[in-house]
């Protein structure tokens, strides 16, 4: 099965404040976007693996987001949940072109 990824233009970089998550819907999926203090933009599925907490509403620390419901710590780079909890969330590649954020889905 060959799956082709599509680059979707989602918003201006200036419209995504640093350290604040933003939910966007891309092809029917709820995606959480984060503009980190190091300038990177990360995108993950907007659902914590434990009880589906909305990650876009979580607290960002470095390259991690903390689920607003149960405080699970999740890597915005790999999607891996940090121990002692277990699981992962889907991550999406991002790209900045002409001051716009694109997400690969």
Automatic annotation (TrEMBL):
Keyword Nucleotide-binding: no
Domain Rieske stretches: 8-103
SUPFAM superfamilies: ISP domain
Alphabetic keyword roster: 2Fe-2S, Iron, Iron-sulfur, Metal-binding, Nitrate assimilation, Oxidoreductase
Single GO molecular function: metal ion binding
Pfam families, alphabetized: Rieske_2
One biological process term in Gene Ontology: nitrate assimilation
Classification via CDD domains: Rieske_NirD_small_Bacillus
InterPro entries: Rieske-like_NirD (IPR012748), Rieske_2Fe-2S (IPR017941), Rieske_2Fe-2S_sf (IPR036922)
PANTHER family hit by this protein: 3-PHENYLPROPIONATE_CINNAMIC ACID DIOXYGENASE FERREDOXIN SUBUNIT, FERREDOXIN-RELATED
Designated name of the protein: Nitrite reductase (NAD(P)H) small subunit
Gene name of the encoded protein: nirD
């Amino acid at each position: 099965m060959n799956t082709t990824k599509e680059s979707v233009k989602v918003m201006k970089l200036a419209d995504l404040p640093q350290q604040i998550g933003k939910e966007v819907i891309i092809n029917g999926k709820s995606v959480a976007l984060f503009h980190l203090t190091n300038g990177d933009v990360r995108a993950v599925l907007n659902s914590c693996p434990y009880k589906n907490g909305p990650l876009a509403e979580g607290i960002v620390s470095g390259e991690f987001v903390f689920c607003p419901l149960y405080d699970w710590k999740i890597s915005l780079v790999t999607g891996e949940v940090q121990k002692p909890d277990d699981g992962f969330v889907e991550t999406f590649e991002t790209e900045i072109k002409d001051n716009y954020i694109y997400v690969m889905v």
